[in-house]
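Same chain as my last thread, 275 residues:
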Amino acid sequence: MNFQKPKVKAPSYELIHKTKNIIDKYSVNTICIESACPNISECFSRNSATFLILGDICTRKCKFCNVKHGKPNIVDSSEPKRVANAINELGLKYVVITSVDRDDLSDYGVSQYVKVTKEIKKINKNIKIELLTPDFHAKKELMDKIINSNPYKLSHNIETVESLYKNIMPGCSYKRSLKVLEYYAKTGILTKSSIMVGLGEKKEELIKTFYDLFNCGVKQISIGQYLSPSFKHHLVIKYYNKKEFDELKEIALDIGFDSVQSGILVRSSYYADKM
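reply #2:
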């Protein structure tokens, strides 16, 4: 297996320390930390972070994910204001808000997304907000509330090809995720999705997924290498090289996507502000 570990430039300790201190000060969670993202140093050095709301315990058990799963805590009513204050102190102009799955809640966490978005806009109405949401079981009345909060961009990750869902993403549905993305896209709000490679998918399955996403109205797509967080998680079946990522990018662009990020360390929120 020929795989060269990617290298990233070591950022300034002071900048990372400052970002971490603000995150700790307001007791907010970031997907950067919870998912053990390989880009954490680079993003923190750019004063960029993806905020994880609704706690840090997920009700689903996806085999690729490093976020804890189990029984979540009650929803924290102070969280929206704390997230907004942290964003303000960090001086961010573009923010990504995502969450764990909360199948234990009657609205699956939608109301917290709306409250967080509202609090951020109170502080600065010019901040661009990307909401990277769960599937909310594709319930239209819940997705309408997300849409009506008027974010700059709506995202939902397809994660992998359809044939791998049953094994890798129990509790999730490929077709349901497509329904969510199609519903988001029909509003005219910029819509994005993300997929990992290296989980055992075939090339033709990837291309089919690209077409499925594009036909749902998705305009932007991120393609990144799956890197197993630990030996307890799903194994990496294949490491893609730069040439293969470049080829996947060209295929996606030829299909018609407006913007494509494709590379070993690309993740759904990687350089989200630049797409």
